[in-house]
Amino acid sequence: MTTPKVPAADATLRLLTFLASRRAPVAAARIAEELDLPRSRTYDLLATLVEHGYVLHLDQERLYGLGPSAHELSGAYARQEPLARIGRRVVEAMVDEVGESGHLAVLHGRDVLYVVEERARNRPSLVTDVGVRIPAHLTASGRAILAALPPAQVRALYGSAGDFSARTEVTGPARPRELRELLAQVRREGVARERGEVTEDLASVAAVVHDHTGWPAASVALTYLERRVDDAARARLEAAVQDAAAELTRRLKGRSGRRGSHPVRPVYRT
After folding, report:
1. Of the N and C termini of the chain, which has fewer Cβ atoms inside 10 Å?
2. What is the DSSP letter of 57?
3. Architecture in CATH of 71-251
4. All residues at 6 or more sequence positions from 145 whose CB lies less than 8 Å from its CB, including other chains
5. Using one digit for the tens of pLDDT, what is the confidence trace for 80-133?
6. Could you name the domain of life of the organism this protein comes from (predicted)?
């Protein structure tokens, strides 16, 4: 027996799926054309989705892309087992190898959401418990993911100084330009770093995990007492998160985004 379609729901889901398949935000006219929808209906659907946060409207560019609520669905899916279950063993092995606390996080709007936390023996407690959210631009985990997003997606999330915040006296990027420069450094070096911007005296290093489309699905990180780690040990930690991220990418049947290009699907999928 064939289940009857609900036209509004069908159009909404097709619209979201279309936006998820694009490299960057697109114009409403293009959406209407590709989905064979009347323009007036397309604008109505977009307005409703913008109101609920599933779509972002870039006013100056007159383009539409996926919004924070769409990423929240992605994060919720990840929390319900697949990513956390697969990632836990990778994080545990990494922590056992280097003796520092590790975690796995996903992007959740402008925050990172921690889905795995593995504390090393005799190491301090961290604020990054499972389920905790922290502004992505302050964390190594968030910076690793943001650096792998298309520039238009980052602009949609961080378009003005009001989108930035601080947690400690060690301030992170406070303006879009500062964030762009920081993310460019992350892309050049292959790892993201944070020193005292989340918790005083603690530092973190992270690397991005890609899904099968090349999209940044998550990041793997290690957190340590900065005063106890010299340059050689820090290099070892950076290599460890890169190896763990590569292993988790492999287990997700993922592929790394090519340098200078961007992935095509902004939703984590198995």
Report:
1. N
2. E
3. 2-Layer Sandwich (3.30)
4. 105, 106, 107, 112, 136, 208, 216, 218, 219
5. 457 888 899 999 999 999 999 999 999 888 889 888 888 888 776 776 667 788
6. Bacteria
